[in-house]
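Translate sequence into structure tokens.
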Amino acid sequence: MFRHLLAYGASELATKLSRLGVVIAVARTMEAQEIGIAAAALATGDLLKSLTEHGVTQRIIAAPEAELDATCNRAHGIFWTWCTGLFALQAFVAAVVWVVTENGTLAGLILVLAGEYLFMPGGLVQTGLALRAGKLTRTAAIAGGQSSIANLMSIALAVIWPSPLVLVLPRLLTAPLWLLWMRRLHPWKPALGAGKAALAPFLRFGAPIIGTEAVKNARLHGDKLIVGALLGPELLGLYFMAFNAGLSLATSFSTAFASVLFPHLCTSGDRAASMRQGLGISLGLVAPLVILQALLAPWYIPILLGDGWDALVQPVSILCLVAIPTMFWTATAGWLRAERRPLEELRGTAILAAAMILNVLITAPLGLVAVSWGYLACACVIMIWLSRPALSLAFLQPRVRS
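Result follows.
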């Protein structure tokens, strides 16, 4: 598990280092209003992309060996149907945005992001099988490679042709690379003689997970749409930069942790020990890094971003610390999913999302610092409170001695 966490952590670190280059490039070449338009498009796209997390990959990972071929056959059809539908839905959303706001740039960016769905279904069964086979270091390398290349493209575009498109177009251009690499990592063809697994178990397991991921992404990205609607694209640009510089570390580590923890819990004979091990390793890696990042923000923000961005120093310092309580809730969510209790995960995620969005509604008029303090307070109180069952399992249950 430590090896897999290091692999995904290294992948996320490479992504964030290249993402830092994007932040520096756009801060020095683009106006806050342009960044705000791109942020609105990305938030809209990510909200819809959350619907791709429907638990089908987890069904492949956890399927009994005798049912694996039939499960993959069914999953393949679900992936194609679902992703094609999401492409159409996002294209429709882009058209509505164009009609309602008369902002052709924003609508065009949303449509560009929809193109990712056309490449995803061809490699998703292979992703599930690779995770099932324990190839986490290589899936981490693929994810990190795709993101790093996209970020390098954004940097180049920001220098050559600064516009909101630099934050959006590379995500589409690197989608074929992800597809090619994933199909080579774990080749798969439908087993025609195995039939297809029943659809009902996918629906029962997936419906709460779709709800959970949609609510989670509403928490992570809905606030940007609220800030844009209340305060306009220029302040949204500042808000996007602050959260991207501070909170991105929290989300990247939680993503890496979740990717590793779920397969580990599914194959573990002692989930309490696995939870204890996972939390200990992740907090040992994350806490010192985010504390150091918070302390150094007054030094590196002016150097990296240049003049005019001093207002981001305190919000970034505060938001870095959100990574620590996020680890507790990420572990709890993975444990609930491994225990096949997705409805409880959905309920906790909904409580957390409602609190975070309410915080933005109340504190946005008071400025970025107030929003950041509120965000950190909500994360500490609610995430730890929701994590009590998993923490009790990991640290209060008597340890099994061999």
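Note: Residues 33 and 234 are 4 Å apart (CA to CA).
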